[in-house]
Each structure stands twice: as C-alpha cells, then as structure tokens.
Amino acid sequence: MTWQAKLFEGEVGLRPIRQRDAKVWREVRLRNLAWLQQWEATVPEEGLLSGEVPASFGVMVRTLHRQARLRKVVPWVITYNGELVGQVTVGGITYGSMRSAYIGYWIDEKVAGRGIMPTAVAMALDYCFEELELHRVEIHIRPENTASRRVVEKLGIPEEGLRRSYLHIDGDWRDHICYAIVAGERPQGVLSSWRASQTR
C-alpha cells in the first residue's frame, strides 16, 4: 500500500493532501461554508470540556499523514482540471478478519453536479479493493443530505440501513444511512461501471 497514490480519470484527479494546499483549501472551504456546514463533523460538549478542539489545517494534515503511514487512512484532495475542488478520505482502515474501511467526501458547490464526485468515489473504491485489498467499504450519509446520497445512488452502492445517533454533526448527534459495497460485487470495477452508466 502506498498512501501517496495519485489517480486520474479524465479531468478528475485524486492526490494526497499536502501542507501547501492550505491557502486554496481554506479559500474553498470558506466560500462553501453555508453549503458544507450542516454536514460537518463537530466536537460534542463532552469533548470540548475535556479540551478537544477542532484541528487547524496544519495539524489535520500532519495527523492524516501520520495515520496514513500507519495504514489507517488514505487522505486525498479532489482536483478538477488541476484545481483543488474537494476531498475524499478513506478512513478507519482495518485489516485482520475485518478488512474494511469507510469513505467520507465533500466538494465545492460551484462544480457539484458534473459527475466529479461519483468519479472520485469510484476511483477511491477501486483503490480500496484492488490496492488495499479490503473486503468491505462503507459510506455513511445523513438522511437529509440528498446531494451526497445521489453520489452513492449513481454508483449503485446498496443501502443497508440506519445508524442512529452515529456522528456528531453540526452541533448534535445525527442519524446516518449506511451504504456498503463488498469486494467482488463489481468484477469489472466501480469506475468502469460508472463509465458504462454514463454512456447509456
């Protein structure tokens, strides 16, 4: 496994997040504050009382790189025509008898709806199965997040059910729908299936 892999499909790319992305990353996030805030992870009151604080960009990147070297995460930014437009993270990587992970993602509103995110997630899923040799990958989405749910629905990833109070999002514990895909369900690859669906 190399967490520094770079993947491309046409104008869409995945590459490792880096410290020098700070200025552009912050600009994109600030411009998309209203678009993203309602879906953002937050620290619950118990965490704030014990001293947990949201990480700065620099701390976030250092933490992601450290976890990546331990084979626990693969942290990518999404590029479109070479510009940073979002992020895809493969996290919670577990080997042994489980061999699983989850994927989280966000995208700049100005390029949403162009097929960029389904392409990026499809590339990430293929990497999970082909390179990381995982057995199962999950994606957890709030029921109200229709834009994010459309991504997994476009890719045909099955819905498995509701996880109650699963993550602390936008100031409270929120329910999430679990979508999951298992190795071997797309012998030709998730990206190939996504490509084929675009030509129908």
TrEMBL record:
One GO cellular component term: cytoplasm
Domain N-acetyltransferase, first and last residues per copy: 12-184
InterPro entries documented for this protein: Acyl_CoA_acyltransferase, GNAT_dom, N-acetyltransferase
Iron recorded as keyword: no
PROSITE patterns: GNAT
Molecular-function GO terms, alphabetical: protein-N-terminal-alanine acetyltransferase activity
Stored Gene3D superfamilies: 3.40.630.30
Keywords of the record: Acyltransferase, Transferase
Recorded family membership: Belongs to the acetyltransferase family. RimJ subfamily.
Name of the protein in its database record: Unannotated protein
Source lineage: unclassified sequences, metagenomes, ecological metagenomes
